[in-house]
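Milestone M4 deliverable, item 7.
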Amino acid sequence: MTADLVVINGVVRTVDNNGTVAEAVAVLGNRIVAVGATSEVKTLAGPGTRTIDAAGGLVLPGFNDAHVHFLMGGFQLGEVNLRDAKTPQEFIARLEQFARNIPAGQWITGGEWDHQWWPGASLPVKEWIDAVTPRHPVFLRRMDGHMALANRRALALANVTRATPEVPAGKIVRDEHGEPTGILKDAAMDYVEKVIPKPDFNLKLAAARAASEYAASLGVTSVQDMSAGADMGVYQTLLERGKLKTRIYGMTPLAEWERLANTGVHAPFGSDVLRIGGLKAFSDGSLGSSTALFFEPYLHEPDNFGLPGPDMVPEGIMLQRVLAADKAGLQIVVHAIGDRANRQMLDIFKTVAEQNGPRDRRFRIEHAQHLRASEIPRFAGQGVIASMQPYHAIDDGRWCESRLGAERCRDAYPFHSLPESGATLAFGSDWTIAPLDPLTGIHAAVTRRTLDGKNPNGWQPQEKITVAQTVRAYTVGSAYAEFAETVKGSITPGKLADLVILDRDIFTIDPADIVKSRVVCTVMDGKAVFSR
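Output delivered:
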């Protein structure tokens, strides 16, 4: 046997069940065929074999991001970026500069702003941006995607006025006179979103390619796209053209479960590159938008307990849909952030499992950020996967206690407690809501140092986990969450040849320096898809 590719002289951490560490890997076609010492693997190289010298770098399985909004991420790469605007003035100035280069009449979207950086954490209003965007309708999402700011022109096109009614699972923020301020929360964002022109297929194709190239540069070889919906054909076309560098498991909205069930497929269905079968739903909103659903109210809004997600309205519809979709053999993954939302979903999952009978269903709760202590062991007991995003902890940790109080934050983002109780962790980024880079997520889970620098020893440090646990959640755990643990997630002979080479061993360096690591090379399906 002659290998097509060999990687030599590395620290190969296989992430297999034995914690095997080797020096080299051999690949034939798109599969790993050997793992061992460099001297052994080199004997498999022939005249046509490509050799990658890792030069002492760390070799890991390709990262598998368990929660992304992939096409949105591709579009975001070309949109206005307001994520790190530290003041309202910077927010306005960046938008003004961006608007100067956009043709009149074209929508300006994106933004990903975060008002928690600003003095007083005041929400923006349309008056901030009307003067600098007189020729454009503007709709700028907050970084969590659960509220957005519209300018006057966008509100007019959507016919949002003081007479516009509220909608279930949403809120139009109004001033003291009842006039919309420009902030729309959750389901209320639909008023504007439905009048924004939809991008055509070619624009989607370009965004998908940009997202895939960007993922490869970060060592991400697989993603689970929560927003894939009807756009899987975009990824299919990219694959047919030989430009897709990312394996994708695409989710469909739970409300559309019948469209998928009527095809007769079960989860997961497709190839090793493109698969479907998952259904995504929302049981509440977000903490940053004060719409995550809790048993107790927000400290800064004593009458606000959060909002039920759109898939919880009308009452009982979530249970009805999950029962039917699960019976059809599909996988259900549900966004739940507040403690009440998590409790409700665990109860629904329990009822469905009891009524539909035992099977390998792999229910997932996406985020699982705020749990009461009594709910933590239920994940393992019910076989529910905790699909979490470490970066959110160091971001929200800056201000979480001002919303909920110190006591209610004790079990926030329980990266340690969940696996300690036997639960499976699958890690991801929630890109575009957070950066796609897995190294930032690993750093976050291991250090829990908040972005404001005020928690050098970690926010809720009892929930720190090790580098080994974190990497496993980004590889084996994520593969398990999409029914793919037998074909990827570890560097094991017979599995798909997805690898990432880093310039240093993040298992042995100071955890604070993990974010300084860089991807040297990414191999997906046996081919080098990125080299620095």
